[in-house]
Write a structure and sequence with these properties.
The strands form four sheets. This protein has a four-stranded antiparallel β-sheet with strand order 1-2-3-4. The chain has a four-stranded antiparallel β-sheet with strand order 7-8-9-10. It has 170 residues and is of the alpha+beta class. It is elongated. Helices cover 28% and strands 33% of the residues. It folds into two domains: 94 residues, Roll (SH3 type barrels), CATH 2.30.30; 68 residues, PRC-barrel domain (SH3 type barrels). The two termini are 36 Å apart.
Length: 170
């Protein structure tokens, strides 16, 4: 999933905070917005990326987007702004996936290896003709990766195991 616009929003937020105001954030901390309202709770901090749970979405934000106040960590955007941005990005990702998810479309694995092609799409049921055999998956098991390729959210090994199970149960 691409979070370029959210990252841009966070970069603007971070640019407005003086370096001395940068707060150390930690999992479990409540984050407050520009008017002091609760924006969400920090789920994790890993490699400079803070996962903020707004109650609606979990948004990855750069650690330097946070400042501090008497209440705790702050950010210069509201819960509504973060939720709107993430909702827009999810809708765009779903639309891109649904456009790419057609019979004959090539599919790569979660690791980027060629996996096969889409055999058929009927509603949420998708049949993948993999190199190991046909596997029925759900629409939600696919995404469009950063290179624009249709990607199954599984490794080639997982698909091969599922194909073997499907063959043995026939």
């Amino acid at each position: 999933m691409k979070f370029a616009r959210l990252a841009a929003l966070a970069a603007v937020a971070a640019a407005t905070l003086p370096a001395a105001a940068m707060a150390q954030v930690a999992a479990g901390a409540t984050v407050y917005g520009p008017q002091g309202g609760v924006v969400g709770t920090i789920v994790s901090v890993e490699g400079g990326v803070v996962t903020l749970d707004t109650g609606t979405h979990k948004a990855p934000l750069p650690e330097n987007a946070f400042g501090k106040s008497d209440k705790g960590p702050t950010i210069t955007v509201t819960k509504m702004q973060i939720d709107d941005m993430v909702s827009q990005q999810l809708a765009a990702a779903t639309a891109a996936r649904d456009t790419a998810l057609v019979a004959g479309a090539p599919v790569v694995s979660a690791g980027g290896a060629p996996l096969g092609t889409i055999d058929s799409v009927e509603g949420d049921a998708v049949v993948l003709a993999s190199t190991s055999g046909k596997v029925e998956l759900k629409r939600e098991h696919f995404a469009v990766n950063q290179q624009g390729a249709l990607m199954a959210l599984f490794t080639a090994e997982q698909v091969a195991t599922a194909a073997a199970s499907a063959i043995s149960s026939e």
